[in-house]
């Protein structure tokens, strides 16, 4: 059974984030917020077919591919930062924290596309509406989790926070799989909600200070399949760096 996400409208995005610490936008809502066309976002999807393996998985798996880039978003301007390692403290990622993980960069064709730029600006504006207007240090991650080995784990570290201000998780593609349920919980309380992102370019936005999140493992539904996501993290003051 697939539970549909609790979509909200872009007009109520800030209200929802303030009330419950997370909000979900439909693809149409994303396009309205970012002032872009869905076909332009869908055109970016082919780049997920060219992700190199993630060689840092400490659970011994081979189910994850990814690319990574960093940006500074201030107002309506996106500036790509010099390529850097991805680092998280162990307090936020017990499995992979404390490691400088160097991933191949996202392709120039993607990061220079107008739809990409509009997406980063829109998420920055949503973050500023919630946290106050300031420069945002953004890490972008393209993920593909596949089921070629049987089971793929979107969040092998389990339910977690990312150590940032706001996280945006876009569902880019979901093909030939079952599972992959999104779960969001209060960081300091009992409340939680679960649902499945299924529509390409729908997005879950999270106030990382208030909630923790995870995605359940995926299994093949017949032939091996995959789940593609784009994760954008927005942090004030600078990038995380050990």
Textual characterization of the structure:
The protein is α+β, with helices and mostly antiparallel strands and 242 residues long. It has a single domain, classed as Jelly Rolls. It is 18% helix and 32% strand. The chain is built from five helices and 13 strands. The protein has helices at residues 13-20, 27-34, 38-43, 108-111, 114-131, and strands spanning 7-8, 22-25, 64-74, 77-80, 136-146, 166-175, 177-179, 182-186, 192-195, 202-207, 211-215, 218-220, 226-235. The strands form three sheets. An eight-stranded mixed beta sheet has the order 1-2-10-6-13-5-3-4. Strand 1 (7-8), helix 1 and strand 2 (22-25) form a beta-alpha-beta unit. 40% of the residues are buried. The mean pLDDT is 94.
Global mean pLDDT: 94
Fraction in beta strands: 25-35%
Order of helices and strands: EHEHHEEHHEEEEEEEEE
The percentage helix is 10-25%
Calculate the terminal CA-CA distance, rounded to whole Å: 42 Å
Biggest sheet: strand arrangement:
1-2-10-6-13-5-3-4
**Any idea what the shape is?**
globular
Q: Would you count the extended β strands for me? A: 13
The largest pleated sheet is described as: 8 strands, mixed
Number of helices: 5
Q: Name the CATH superfamily assignment.
A: q2cbj1_9rhob like domain
> Radius of gyration, Cα only, in angstroms?
17 Å
User: What number of domains?
Assistant: 1
Enter the CATH topology name.
Jelly Rolls
> Based on helices, strands and strand pairing, what is the structural class?
alpha+beta
CATH class: Mainly Beta
Task: Please state the second-level CATH architecture.
Answer: Sandwich
Low-confidence stretches: none
